């Protein structure tokens, strides 16, 4: 932390109060209490002062929220808006990835609670905007900066250059100001570092830079096509993300749980309250899932033969039926989906504990409900998205046909100190066979089993699609160190993947364990390999929520590729979700797969 003093102590320092524009008469001597003067919270001043250190502003915004909520003050939604707007600055882009995520833990739940408050006030469109703005902040900012600055540099190079210069100057000034402010706070407690004069000079310089940057941004936003440059998307823009099918945001807040449905041809959010589901239940189901997976790991796959794994009276059937009855059935009923005809696409955008639950498998699996109409897969083809921006038409994940389709296969070496994956060889043979039976597509099959990280990354930029058949690791202590295992104990890390900037779209098939399992503390940041592939430029990703069966994974891969190459023409990555849907359906119908073996496979993206 850049400030080691408690917030109330810091705010009551005369120098700090002056810097933050808070009259000392507004501040209570009791830490954490809410005192108003002319209906204004002292925390609102601290949170809203542009030149103040972000750490102080954000902590003040959280205090403001607590105070406003406790007395039902009319400023509550404004307080949430201020707090959400500060999140990207809290996770400053100049920090390392690890530092950025550490900073975001301070506001891990603020956006979900903000959305709930907006829904309480009858503002579902605002709730949807906030949930988009305040989630996957690191990924979203990296992608936005790449695309936005490229567009600005192309159209208005002088403005792009000046904006970069001002941004760099502000970053430096902000770091200097924060250090001086901390030192001045120590001075007021008997430690002398610098005087108020130098602090005032730094404050004035910081203020002038802010004014100049804001003026430049206003000028940029006056250009046609740049009206919302570096601004979050409003609801009218978010609607376009539903061009391929309904997008369902599942919000889990302490006070309420809701589904927000966005359709491309409807100018408002379809709000579906979930009164029979609450945050505590979602957390309990997450815990139940963990117990079921722990029990499954203790049993060899061949010993189950499709029988449900149970532990202390809890079963997969009960988990999936709870999701069906409490959430999914209400959503499908509201959208009037039918089991007749081909299933439609649907895109789930879960938040909080919902992120870890197998929404795509919800249903009734007992013998009394064997007929179609009681499972989510009977109605729709499920995909997941970390943000709505992933589905924006401007991403264009489908690349126009060319003379050569390049497929890069990255596989685990036969022996490299890690547990041997028996399914890698047959999976690779399936891919070769399928590609060989597509004569009208000139496919270049590139294989890598001994390449360095740099070599694999280079091949990924050249290839249209990339299947990985290897071990995957989700690092709970340092999520950005999660990755895919290469030869000689090398690891293609999440931090390496997001450094890619691809424009080819295409599909990444991650036939590895735990490639779509995120971080529990920052569930809304989508810190997993599948999301990293999306933000690196892939249009769609097939990944796994937990460890997969080495015996069944090749079968799933074979069926997926047979579907995608079935016409002998260049494959379309937009068909990957349907291909996986049908492959898992055949696997279930065969009776050879238990819940723990078919449920982990998911499709992410378009």
TrEMBL record:
Region listing for Disordered, in residue ranges: 177-198
Pfam families: CHAT
Segments passing through the bilayer: 526-548
InterPro entries noted in UniProt: CHAT_dom
Polar residues compositional bias, start-end: 181-198
Keyword vocabulary terms for this entry: Membrane, Signal, Transmembrane, Transmembrane helix
Signal peptide positions on this chain: 1-21
Residue ranges of domain CHAT in the record: 319-605
Name of the protein described by the UniProt record: CHAT domain-containing protein
Species of provenance: Boletus edulis BED1
Lineage, broadest ranks: Eukaryota, Fungi, Dikarya, Basidiomycota, Agaricomycotina
